[in-house]
Amino acid sequence: MQVKNISINRIKIKRGRRVANKERVLEIAESITTIGLLHPISVNKQYQLVTGRHRLEAYKKLGKKTIPAITTEKGLKADLAEIDENLIRQELSVLERAECLQKRKDIYETMYPESIKRGPGRGHKETNRTKFVSFTADTSNKTGSGRRTIEHVVQIANNIPPDLKKMILKSDLANNKNELLHLARLDSKLQNRVVKIRLKNDDMTIDEIVKDLLVKKRVRDRERDRKKLLSNSASKSDDIRLYHGDCRELFPGIIKALKKESPDADIIVISDPPYNIKFAGYDKYSDNLPDAEYIKMMKMFRGLPSAIIQYPEEMMSLIYPALGKPDEVLAWCYSSNISRAFRLINIYNTTPDYNMVRQPYKNPKDKKVKKLIKHGSSGTTIYDWFADLQLEKNVSKGKNSHPCQIPVALMERLIILLTKKNTIVVDPFAGVGTTGSACRLTGHRFIGIEVSKKYYQLARNRLLNI
Ligand SMILES: C[S@@+](CC[C@H](N)C(=O)[O-])C[C@H]1O[C@@H](n2cnc3c(N)ncnc32)[C@H](O)[C@@H]1O
Fold it and tell me: How far is the CA of 260 from the centre of ligand 1 (A)?
C-alpha cells in the first residue's frame, strides 16, 4: 500500500459521520508534534475520508496543508475499514458497538462467504473453509476485543429488535453489556415488556423485572385455577375428602389409593399434630401416647414432602427421631401473654418458594415504590413472614369449637409456599378442618383424617356443609 501526501482541501467527509471529539483532536495534535503521524489516514478514490477523522482534524488544527494517506478501493473493503476505525474508538456505547459489529459481520461474510462456519454437509470441502478466518477471529485481531465479547455483542445486535434499540439508545442500559445480553436472550414478547418497565425503573435489573413478571403470572394462574375450581360446585366436594378414624390405621391405605388414583399428582402432608402434653381439652383423645408410639405414628410421614408444626418446642424429642432433621424450619411468632409465643414449622423433602407470597409495601408513597405499584407489583418479598398472623382466640371470628384451632391464613400461606397446582394436601390430624379451609381458598385437593367424631362432624359442616 502506497502512502502519498494529499491535499487536505481535497478530502471530503461523508455526511452523517460522527463529529470529532475536540479533546481527542488536541491530544492527537500534540502527539503528532512530538512523534509525528504513526498511521496514515485512508481515503477512497473520490478522496472521501474512510479512516482517520481525528488525525485529519489534528492536522488541520496544526495548520498543515497536506496529510499522509493511503487510497483504498471504494466498496466493501472501504466500508469495513471505516467500521474498524469506529470500533477502536472509546466513546461508543455497547449498543452502538453492537450495531457496528453487526454491520461488520454482514460485510465481512459477504466478502468472504467461505469464512462462515458450516457443518460438514454434502460437497463441503474442509480445505476451503480452513483458508478463511472467521468473522469473530478477524474482528478480534482488528479490534483487540476477546472473541467471547464479540460473540456476546453480536448476539445483542441480532436479538434486540430495532425499535427496542431505538428506545434504549439514550438510556443507561445502552452501555450495560450484561444487562443488554440478558435482554437479548429473552423471548421477543417479553423483551418488549421488560424494556418498557426498565426504562421507567432504572434501579431495577432485567433479572428482577423478569422474576417479578414471572411471580405475577404464577399468582394470576393460581387465582384463575382457584376461581375455576370454586365455580365448579361438583368438584368442590370431590376435592375435599374427610375421614373419621385413627390416622395410624387409615393413612397408609389412603396414600396408596391416592397414588394409584392420581399418579401424576404430588402429595404433601401439612399438619398440626397433637402436642402429647396430656392436654385435657380435647374431645375423646387423651393426648398422652407413650413416646415410642408417638414416634412410630409420626414415622408414617417419613420420606413424604411435609410441613409439620412442632409445638411445644420440646416435641422435637419425638419429631426428630421420627422424621429426622428438617430441611428447613420456619417460625410463626404471635402475640401472647405466655413467654413461648411462637411455633416452629418443620419442612421435610420440599423447598418453600418464597416468591409466592408478597407483602404489601410499607411505604407506598415512596417514589420508587409508587413506580413499582404502577407497574403492577403487588408487594415486596415478605419480611415479617408469619408475624402478621395471630392465634385463634376463643372470641375470634371463625372459631369452631376446637381448643387448639389454628388460623386458616397460616395454613393458606404454607400451602402457597409449598405446593404446585396439582398437589394434594393431606392433614392426618385434621381437627375441625383448618387445613381443608385453606385448601378451599387456594384451590387444592384436600384429604383430612380426624379421630374425634365431634371434630370430624364440625369439619364436615365447615368444609362440605353436611
Ligand atoms: C393440634 S390438633 C389439630 C387442630 C387443627 N389444626 C385445627 O385447626 O382444627 C390435633 C388433632 O389431632 C387429632 N388426633 C390425635 N390423634 C389422632 C390420630 N391418631 N388420628 C387422627 N386424628 C388424631 C386430635 O383429635 C386433634 O383434633
Answer: 26
